From TrEMBL:
CDD domains: gram_neg_porins (cd00342). It comes from Iodobacter fluviatilis. It is a multi-pass membrane protein. Gene3D superfamilies: Porin (2.40.160.10). This is Porin domain-containing protein. The keyword Amino-acid biosynthesis does not apply. GO terms for cellular component: cell outer membrane; pore complex.
Length: 367
């Protein structure tokens, strides 16, 4: 009996020991009020809209006896109106960080997408990051992030897909920071995802939404392959920020596009400039979406986009902003290879309108 008491006490003490793993909570809260012109289903009229987006990240780290670090993240974006998603659909991964780099396993963002989304801030991200052949998220991802070497680093990512080579996604990205420059480049390929379209999304989601990969079945004898290439560069000198970027989108095979064919390509160019004076920040940008080419034939569906944003710092964590972005279509109603109004601020694709404008004011807070 005495031995049993000793064993029970030892086991109890083992599991009652204080946890030394560090857990932090971070995220952001954004409030947007907007007016959008030439909306779908309004006979060419505009709409007023509101969006509240709260992102919550729960991160944990544990220092291992080997000196390495085990890391994990559980994250979610709660958006209104009409949607409340469960934790982990945004991110849910476990990583191991060593002096040789870091590997991550699980549901995670595409590193190429994160770079393009961060590059195209202040109003141009709807076309640079959310439109195209790239993937946003790898639900069954395996990633490697290198250490920095004199300002240079690289990363490789792979989505297991259906566990066979018949359906998978992969990418390689690189970054250099130094002498006022930040240069990033990436190349990605996704093969046989059922959700393949002109809208960047979760690889193979199959209608199941974020954090799910689907079954990757694209139909009898139907296959697809999507490729994305990009290079972005920023330069900061004094109060000025300058940026320029290029992106190429390629869709092959069975893909949901506004223009049907075996191979479709779209090239994009972006230039931007910013100026900061005290708490005030001014930004201007121009983006060109070239005419698409399907099976070698050019389609007159390109567009020019202007965006401007003013930011005012309210505190060390909060910024108030006013933004405008204006899309000018080469041909009325034809917005590149987009198939849905949501891809262009609700614009009535297929209408007799050539312009789409969004005006927005709001605040963004980090915590």
């Amino acid at each position: 009996m005495f031995k049993r008491v000793l064993i029970a006490t030892a086991v109890s003490a083992m599991f009652a020991a204080p946890a030394f793993a560090d857990v932090t909570i971070s995220g952001s809260a954004e409030m947007d009020l907007m007016y959008k012109t030439n909306q779908a289903g309004t006979n060419g009229k505009g709409k007023v809209a509101e969006e509240i987006a709260v992102i919550v990240n729960i991160d944990g780290t544990d220092k291992l006896d080997t000196g390495d670090t085990l890391k994990w993240r559980l994250a979610q974006k709660v958006a209104t109106p009409g949607r409340y998603d469960s934790f982990g659909q945004r991110e849910a991964w476990i990583g191991y960080e060593t002096k040789f780099g870091e590997v991550r396993f699980g549901n995670q963002f595409s590193n190429q997408y994160l770079e393009m989304d961060g590059f195209a801030n202040n109003g141009s991200g709807n076309l640079w990051a959310d439109f195209g052949s790239q993937q946003v998220q790898y639900a069954n991802g395996v990633s490697y992030f290198s250490p920095k070497f004199s300002g240079f680093s690289f990363a490789g990512q792979y989505d297991l897909g259906n566990g066979r080579n018949s359906a998978r996604a992969m990418e390689l990205t690189a970054n250099y920071t130094g002498y006022g420059f930040n240069v990033a480049a990436g190349a990605a390929e996704a093969k046989n995802g059922k959700s393949a379209s002109s809208e960047a999304g979760t690889f193979g989601a199959n209608g199941k939404g974020w954090g799910n990969s689907g079954d990757f079945t694209v139909g009898t004898n139907a296959e697809n392959k999507l490729r994305t290439y990009n290079i972005d560069a920023k330069y900061k000198t004094g109060a000025f920020d300058l940026a320029a970027g290029y992106k190429r989108n390629e869709w092959n095979g069975a893909v949901d596009l506004a223009v049907a064919g075996q191979k479709t390509t779209v090239d994009q160019f972006l230039v931007a400039a910013g100026y900061t004076m005290g708490k005030n920040n001014f930004n201007l940008g121009y983006q060109r979406v070239q005419d698409s080419k399907t099976d070698g034939t050019k389609v007159d569906n390109g567009m020019n986009v202007l965006n401007a944003q003013y930011n005012y710092t309210l505190s060390k964590n909060t910024v108030a902003f006013a933004q405008v972005r204006h899309h000018m279509l080469d041909t009325a109603g034809k917005a590149s290879v987009m198939t849905g109004a949501s891809q262009l601020d609700g614009f009535a694709i297929g209408s007799d309108k050539k312009n789409a404008t969004r005006l927005m004011v709001g605040t963004w807070t980090a915590f």
